Amino acid sequence: MSNYPIYQTMHIRDQNNLVRTQVHIADLEAGMTVEVNGEFKTVNVKDHVSHSDFMGWCFQGDASKKYLTRVQFAIHLHTGTVLR
Description:
The protein is mainly beta.
């Protein structure tokens, strides 16, 4: 876990039960789903996330975006809501 702030602002879209959160690239973990240019991608840290002293943190070679939109799916159960 890095020292970068994770924004806790969540936007729920009712028709698709999607919860979106802004996450710094350094905080991405394998298996997370992110939205990049309108497409959902599953994060593979080894192939997608890199760091260098010159460019800093990069996602798929793009250093211009430092925060990505993490997408979670809200599943409504009789005991409450679960995020997957």
